[in-house]
Every structure is written in C-alpha cells, then in structure tokens.
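Propose amino acids for all 349 sites.
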C-alpha cells in the first residue's frame, strides 16, 4: 500500500470518527425540544438541561475529528481540498455557520435566566444540528456521484445541480440516522422518564432509518459501487435490523453499537465506491481528481505519516479516557434547580 492509499483511508477514518461521535451530538440537539417539550416552566428547562448535559463534556472534542479531517485533506490532497471547498462553497459555508451558532448556543444558553433568552438559543441548537446533519449527506452523496469539473479542475455545477434526488436522499439518510443515533445515545446516557421517552423515539426512528438506509445503500451500490462493497451494504442492513430489534428489546447498548456499525458501513460504502477517485467529474471533457493527481509530494506524505503515528494514539487515548470518566447516566433529579425562570422582559417575545 502506498502513502496516497494510506492517507485516503486515514481521511475516511477521520470522517468516520466525526460522523459516529458528532452524529449523536447532532441527534441530541435535534431531540432536545422533543424530550423537553411543554410550556415554559422550570421543569421543562431542567429536562432540556439534562439532555444537553449528556454531551456537555464531549461535544467540542468530537468536533476535533472534523478539523483534523479537513487539515489532513488539505495537507495530503490539496487539489481535492481546493476543488471541494470552492465547488461546494455554499453548502460547506452553511455547515460552518450552523456549527458556530450551535457551539455559541450551547455555551450561552444558561448565561441569563430568562425564558426568551433560552428559547432563542434552543432554536439555534436545533437548527445548528439539523442543517449539518442534512448537508453532510448531500455533500458526500455528490462527491460519490460526481460533479461537473472542467479541464481547469473547477467545479461548474450550480447549487441546484447539487440538490439532485440521490444527494437529497443522502441528506435524508444522514439526518435520520444521526437523529436515531442521538436517541439511542440518550437512552444509554439517561435514566427515568428521559430514558423512557428516548427509547420511544428510537422505536419510531429505527424502522425509518432502515428503510431510508436500505434504499440509499442499494442505489449507491448499483450506481457507483464495487463488487466488494456489497459486503458494506449487507453489514449496514444487518446493523440497522439489529437496531430495530435492540430498541424494542430495551437493549440500548446493543442499539448504540448497531447505529455505530451502520454508520461505519455506510462510510466504507461511500469511500469504497469513490476510490481511487476523490472527486469524479461528470463532464466528458473534464478532469476528475484521483489520489494520484490530487496528492501532495511523497516527502510531505512521509512527514505527515510520522506525525500521525506519534500523535493519533495520544488523541484517541485522551478522548477514550474522557468518555470513561463521564460514563454515568444522567437523570433530571441530578440537575440542580436554577434560580427560577423569569418571565420574558417587556418587548421581548
């Protein structure tokens, strides 16, 4: 295996880590108003605070996987990075804005004890979770499908070209599976009424995820897949079937393992279908990007490989230790009461 192949695999692994870890963060953000629904009362706010506390110690660390994936892409395959971020400028810009608003909302939500203040940040948390969940699926589906790249390696596809049926199905898949992943995570991390409600939501979402995932996986395999990626399709289907069975049996640990395996299989299917391309072109006279014509020099890849060999184990061990320290379940009873939610100030809705 050459260094170009190695770094293609490593970038796939980095995005896999991001989707698995940040995926349940997105799901928790999407489900926060569902598990904390009701009138503006201290009890509702306590439920929402408990939901957010399940990801409080880890959500910002999970986002590091995206930063490292983007940095690795920039260093190992600069042509891929340049073409992707210029051609997909608007979707990636929307993802960035959503992630910024979500991060600020999580940190600022509890700074002022005011109904209107928290309500607005709650909207930002939900929007900042829904938008990336959907657009990541749209982006990666388009990467696998191919876009119009001309002879100058410039993407000429418009935003409406990117919103094709296959890409929209990819967006629906990531939105559904991340929400299911978050529901299962909440069932695993909470107790009492919150856990019961999370399990109920997971039971609704699991069959939907199985249906959407099955259609997308078959479409990908038949249109873009390799013979060996049929294995990834089979694993994804088996994992989602296992999730349906596990949530109905109240085995949230197995269900979380199932959603993790399903996300892994879909990432393997996408990157396996893409290889050795990194951005194929749909134009007859265009120039598609491959691991050969998009990579950095051999010396750059060697230096990156040595750096990754030393630093990656440290990062993984530290993040694993973080999850171990904060492994306990959270209940509403453990959330200290706030001073008391104040009514909205005059002139504020």
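Proposal:
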């Amino acid at each position: 295996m050459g260094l170009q192949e190695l770094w293609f695999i490593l970038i796939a692994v980095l995005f896999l880590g991001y989707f698995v870890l940040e995926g349940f963060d997105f799901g928790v953000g999407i489900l926060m108003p569902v598990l904390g629904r009701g009138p503006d009362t201290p009890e509702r706010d306590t439920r929402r605070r408990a939901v957010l506390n399940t990801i409080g110690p880890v959500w910002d660390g999970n986002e590091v996987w995206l930063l490292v994936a983007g940095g690795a892409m920039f260093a190992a395959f600069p042509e891929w990075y340049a073409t992707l971020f210029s051609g997909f400028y608007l979707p990636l810009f929307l993802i960035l804005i959503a992630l910024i608003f979500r991060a600020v909302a999580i940190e600022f939500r509890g700074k002022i004890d005011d109904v209107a203040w928290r309500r607005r940040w709650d909207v930002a948390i939900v929007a900042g979770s829904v938008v990336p969940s959907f657009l990541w699926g749209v982006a990666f589906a388009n990467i696998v499908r191919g876009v119009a790249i001309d002879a100058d390696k410039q993407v000429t596809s418009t935003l409406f070209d990117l919103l094709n049926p296959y890409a929209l199905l990819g967006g629906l898949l990531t939105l559904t599976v991340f929400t299911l992943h978050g529901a299962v995570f909440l069932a695993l991390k909470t107790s009492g009424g919150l856990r019961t409600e999370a399990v109920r939501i997971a039971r609704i979402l699991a069959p939907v995820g199985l249906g959407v995932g099955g259609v997308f996986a078959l479409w990908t395999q038949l249109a873009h897949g390799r013979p060996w990626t049929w294995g990834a399709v089979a694993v994804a289907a088996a994992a989602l079937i296992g999730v349906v069975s596990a949530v109905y049996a109240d085995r949230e640990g197995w269900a979380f393992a199932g959603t993790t395996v399903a996300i892994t299989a879909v990432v393997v299917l996408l990157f396996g279908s893409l290889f050795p391309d990194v951005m194929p072109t749909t134009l007859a006279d265009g120039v598609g990007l491959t691991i050969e014509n998009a990579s950095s020099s051999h010396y750059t890849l060697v230096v990156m490989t040595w750096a990754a060999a030393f630093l990656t184990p440290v990062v993984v061990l530290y993040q694993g230790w973080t999850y171990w320290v904060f492994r306990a379940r959270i209940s509403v009873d453990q959330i200290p009461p706030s001073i008391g939610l104040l009514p909205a100030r005059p002139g504020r809705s």
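The mean pLDDT is 90. Strands lie at 277-279, 289-290.
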